Structure formats: structure tokens, C-alpha cells
Amino acid sequence: MTNKDIAGLFHEFASLMELHEENPFKIRSYENAYLALRKLDQPLLDQDREAWMQIKGIGSAVLDKLEEIKNTGSFASLDEFRNKTPEGIRQMLRIKGLGPKKIKSIWNELQVESPGELLYACYENRLLALKGFGEKLQQDIIQSIEYFNSQQNLFLFAQLELEGKAILSSLQALNPDARFEFTGALRKASPTHSNIELLTNAKKVKVPETLILKDGIYIWNDRFPVQIYETEDLNWAQDQLRLTGGSDCFVNTIYSVLKNANAKTEAALFESSKIQFIPPECRDLETFASFDEQALISDKDIKGVIHNHSNYSDGIYSIEKMAEECIRLGYSYFVISDHSKSAFYANGLQIDRLSNQWKEIDQLNKKLAPFKIYKSIESDILSDGSLDYPDETLKQFDLVIASVHSNLKMDEDKAMIRIIKAIENPFTRILGHPTGRLLLSRKGYPLRYKELIDACIANEVVMELNANPLRLDMDWTWIPYAMEKGLKIAINPDAHNLKGIQDIRYGVLCARKGGLTKNNCLNTLSISEFDLWIQSKNRF
Length: 540
Known about the structure:
- The chain is of the alpha/beta class.
- The chain has helices at residues 3-19, 24-37, 49-52, 60-72, 76-83, 87-92, 100-110, 115-123, 135-150, 157-174, 184-187, 236-244, 248-258, 266-272, 319-328, 351-368, 391-394, 412-424, 449-458, 479-485, 504-513, 527-535; strands spanning 155-156, 180-183, 192-193, 196-200, 211-214, 217-220, 224-230, 304-308, 333-339, 372-380, 399-403, 428-431, 462-466, 489-492.
- It folds into four domains: 3-150, Orthogonal Bundle (DNA polymerase, domain 1); 153-230, 2-Layer Sandwich (Beta Polymerase, domain 2), CATH 3.30.460.10; 246-283, no CATH class; 299-535, TIM Barrel.
- The N and C termini lie far apart (50 Å).
């Protein structure tokens, strides 16, 4: 179990307690545990009670439950609440915009016990009879349920890759002479997909006990579907090419030629057909007319780490610790961009706290030179499109990242007006996570993407590709148009802990899916080049 999995158990426990009207002080303690544990980057299950006691805000009741989780994967009091709550009600708790209090009202007064029943009740306007429910809320719930239903049985790439590596390791141990590789959507680094696909040359695959065959599909750890394809060594390259697949363009213009070739490796298939090699993650592109593998962005091209949070706001490490980790990973510079004052939920920086952070950065820059830390902020884009600091404060930052964090339920016109106004602010240098989406959880507000990209170019604003695997926002499908227009893209981890810095890898994979070249990426710039970019815009 990951730290986020463990934290999720406490969040579920707090929600179920609130649903059943338990002690609000206890509920708050478990919600606080959820918030604290989900940010940690050191695996909790590798630690003992003494180490857990050092975590701020963790009391004895939570410590006892961590012990249970370490031994059983859950804890008794959570199982007790699960047992007295219908499965459909527990599913409803995962729907955005529906808190325990509203669900309790729906459950008690309408006898609705599942997302499907709730959707039907909304279509019949039955929610309008409940206190606190109006027509707009009912419509919002319909949209949330429809999105929730559309994302069922999907998993994040990062999650499936982690599980997939564990499966490969187990299979390889049981079949030491066989070959196993990822194939399908996982090999193409699709941001979300439904299963783990593997290719093997084993004649009769020996599988571990945790891989159970059900209806022709293997299930890993009672949760993850696994499809294993068998092939001969002679056919490996062709079968890997076919199973990986790609866009209609790839299938019709490239695979249609390659399928007639004969070679032991995919690279050799391309070479023998005199076609430039297309890496698996790039094969979903809609055109390959200007594709250049040599120009494609790679991990080694990233020189600096932009958009990070420290314990000045909602990160868990000091600026110095975060900077030292960047140095350890081989980066040349680091942009600290804690939350701004409107982000009260994230301990956003009021103006009087900024000077302390800037003094610390100045001291660290002397200590860590030639490594450099830049003074930034993730400034909230307010409902009217303005940023939440006065110009006198904004001009003192090296750069400003502007992001939407509140009032996310906007129609397309409202979202465009709000975000374009922020882009037009002379102090905005980067637009953060443009749609505000959370993969498999929150769809994000609608945007006219081309118009947004054009506005960024007109105002010399860089668009972020937020590399957190829960976001991967901007979506990779925007990248071809962005490159065509000359937009710069920053691949940013939005790191809140040391491990989060390494999320850059997911951003690079996502960028490669869109064919992003190193010249179109902001943080491939060296320190001196980055300094010139910062100075390039009139700072008033």
C-alpha cells in the first residue's frame, strides 16, 4: 500500500463517521491524519510506531490504526462502518460535490442507495423536494455522476506501471528463462487505462498466487485486470508492434508498411522499412509528417525544477531540503512557488511572510551556488480573473505562476474570460494546470483550447504541463497545436515533497506522447538562459 492508499482509508473512515453522525472532533482528527499522511514520501509501512510518532498531528488512535493497517491492510473500526453502510452509498461518497451530509439526506429521505438510483432520482427531479437542494445543484450532481460512471474501471498510468513492474518481477522469478514486457496502452504511457497488458514468449506461464484467472482474464491483488499474450521469439517484434497499436494515422501509414517486414526487434522493423523509429509513447499522434525523434524531449533535457511547494505553505519539507534533493537528482535550478494568500486551506503566504522566505532564499543561494533558487508564487486566479496580490507585491517575484484553485464550476465562457484576464496580467509568466482537472476524479472546467493557447502566445505566457500523475494537465493532445504556434511549455512536478520532484518523469512521458521537442520546453533552459527569459518581460 502506498501512503496515499493508507491516507485514503482515514479519509474514508472520516466520511463514514460523518455519514453516521459520529463525534465531530474525532472526525476532524481522522481528516487531519488523511491530510498529513498523503503528503509523506517515505513509505509508512517501512517504518515503525516510533517513526510515526514524529509525524505532526498524529495521535495515539491513529497510531493504533496504522499498526492494524501494517498487519492487515485495514483496521477494525473502518471495517465496522463499511459493514453497516451499503456499498452503493460508499460509492456515492466518491462522487465529487456530494459530501456525507447531503448523501445522508438522500439516503434517509429518498431511500436512494447507489449512484445509479441517484442519477434516476435526479432525472425525475426528486432532489428538488429535499431541503438544501436546488435545480442547479441537481444538475451538477447529474454531471458528477455521469463523469464518475465514465471513469469506472480505469486506473492512472503511474499506478498501473507500479503494479505492472511488481507483476513482471513475480513472473520473471517463476519463469526465469522467459521474456516478459509491457504492451498495449501501458507501453504507450496513456494517462489512464483499464488494464495491464503483457507479452511473453513463455510456452506455459507459471503465475504467482496473487494473479488469479477469472473469465479468461487474470486479476492481480483482487483489483487490477491483467492480460497476458503469448508469442514465439520469431514473431516477437511484429506482435509487440501490433499489440501496442497507435492512432489511425500510425496504423494506416506506418504499421501498414511495417507489418510486411521481418526482423527480431521493432527498431529493426522500422530500419528495414526505411521509416524513422516512432517510440511507443508517441504512436497515438494524429500525424507524423514533421516528427523528429532526435528533437523529442527526454528526461535528461530537463535542467530545472519549476513549481514546487515547501513548508511555508502546504509542502512538508523546507526549501533547503527540496533544493538539496534537486541537486542530488542533477538539476541546476529550482523554482519555489508556494501558495498565495487566498489559499487559506494550504497555509498560503500572506504578504508579511514573503520577506522571510525571500531572505532565506538569498542565504541559500549563497550557500548552494552555483545551484540557484528562484522566488516565485502560485498565485490564485480569483473569480474575476485578477491575481490575489497587488502589483507592488507581484513585481518582486522572479516569476509568477497563475492557477485556478477555487470556484471551479464554470461554463466555457466564464472560464475563458477568467483565465484569459489572468494571462493578460503583465506579471503572469506561467499558466498553471490549465483545466484544473484531476484524472478519474474531476473533469476540469471546459475551455476553448486553441483560443487559450493563442492568448498565451500573444502575452508571452508559458503553459504548464503539470507532471503530477493525478493531473497531467495540459492534456498531451494540445501539444501539436501548441508547437505549431510556437508556445513554450513548462514540465512542472508541482512537488509537495521530495519524491514529488521525480514526477517530472510522468510529465516528460506525457509531453513525448504529444511530440514535444526540447526546444519547445521552458525548463530545458540553462540557468543563464532561464535568467534571460525572466528578464525578457517588462516587470514595470
